[in-house]
Amino acid sequence: MLIFHHLFLGLAAGIILAVLLSNKWAVLYAGVGAIIPDLLDKPLGQILLSDSINYGRIYAHTLTLAVILIIIGLLIWYKYRKNILLLCIGAGVLIHQLGDVMWETPVNWFWPFLGPFPPSSEVYPPIPDGYLPYLYLASWILAVIAGTAVIVVLYRYLGQYLAKGKMVKRILTGTGMILMGAGTILLVKYLIWDLFLTGPWANYFGTMYLHELLSISEWIYGLSSLMLILLILDYPVRFSETTKKRIISICGAGILTVSLLLLLFIGLGFPVDEVYGENMWRLAAVAGLFFGGIVFLFLGNRIWELPDDRIHTKK
């Protein structure tokens, strides 16, 4: 799955689109598009169709879908100019497919022109018992982070009711926020641990989860993506344009440095990112970091000068 890998590459491609289209929201739109294929196909192919296809790269991983989204997006952009949502999502979907080297499974990528999706014979080994305590702890940590994020977002929009107004309204608002946060924690923990890591699909999703937790490159992808998203949303701190440029440049330089160090360690035979299994995939992860670092360093500071337009029609 490696969702942070795809998110990071989508955001990096979005920076390029933002500069080309003069709209900084292209960054987030492309980032969303880059994770859509896995969010759709993994549950569909690995859960709902596990008895037939048993493969997580089907409909949303087809070139057909990416081309349709991009063509419709181009037509909408040509007419409305500032309406870039579908175009950028389509570009993000295509970036995801390229990151998954879908050309190596041409029947799936060029569906339906080469026939139906072939069933997969992949068998996923069970999660080693030694990793289960770490996965359990990680599931709770992610759940608490998700619940805290919900409370923080709610506070941003409902904080006025906690600061002023009648006491009853304050109590109800605060109680509602806490309940929403607690509910999110329990839901996320249930989805991650009880459903995906100990349920009938634990072998596949547990392996993917381990890849996310044990990969150095995935941590860099995830932290860099989070930093960029928060800067664009001006949340929770509003930095000046100069500060944002400095942060994105430092981040880009850091990503480049890490990518070169990982390349050196891999070349020297150190056990770096062993979860990828083959050297080809380790090098692909390094290449993704290098590409993103270049984009962050040389184009990232330009997005803060772009208009803050989302979707507006042409007058």
Helix-strand pattern, N to C? HHHHHHHHHHH
Biggest beta sheet attributes: none
The chain-level structural class is mainly alpha
Q: Count helical runs.
A: 11
Strand content: under 5%
The helix fraction, in percent, is over 70%
Q: Indicate the radius of gyration in whole angstroms.
A: 21 Å
Number of strands: 0
Give the tally of structural domains.
2
Mean pLDDT: 87
Rough outline: globular
**What is the CA-CA span between the terminal residues?**
42 Å
Oligomer: single chain
Low-pLDDT ranges: none
InterPro entries: YdjM-like
Transmembrane segments: 58-77, 84-103, 134-158, 170-193, 213-235, 247-268, 280-300
GO molecular function: hydrolase activity
Keywords: Hydrolase, Membrane, Transmembrane, Transmembrane helix
Descriptive account of the structure:
Pfam families: YdjM. This protein has 11 helices and no strands. It is mainly α. Helix content is 70%, strand content 0%. It has 2 domains: 3-122 and 215-305, no CATH class; 129-204, no CATH class. The model has no long low-confidence stretch (mean pLDDT 87).
Question: Which features characterize this protein?
Answer:
YdjM-like, hydrolase activity, 2 domains, 315 residues, transmembrane, hydrolase, single chain, transmembrane helix, mainly alpha, 70% helix
Element layout with pairings:
Layout: H1 3-21, H2 26-48, H3 63-80, H4 85-99, H5 106-109, H6 132-163, H7 167-197, H8 202-214, H9 216-233, H10 241-268, H11 279-298
Helix pairs in contact: 1-2, 1-4, 1-9, 1-11, 2-4, 3-4, 6-7, 9-10, 10-11
